Amino acid sequence: MKGEIIDNNKKTNKRNGCFNLDNLNSNDTSDVIKMVVESRRDYKKTKEEEATKRLAIEKATEIHLEKIKSSKEMVENISKA
Q: Would the pTM of this model clear 0.85, i.e. be above it?
């Protein structure tokens, strides 16, 4: 209707493609809950994988820095002799 006042929340929801949770039936609700649980599980798994990668990178960096330090000491010892 012309001149109709639109609730700002409804307008935003339509733009974002959101839907009204009140209209969901029990099957839809269980599907949403399953998706949320699965999403959390995936997030935790990804978080653990990223932490493992980060630790591996840190360890590799420490080893590399130790090699550089020993090479530097060897060069200094050779140059002193």
A: no
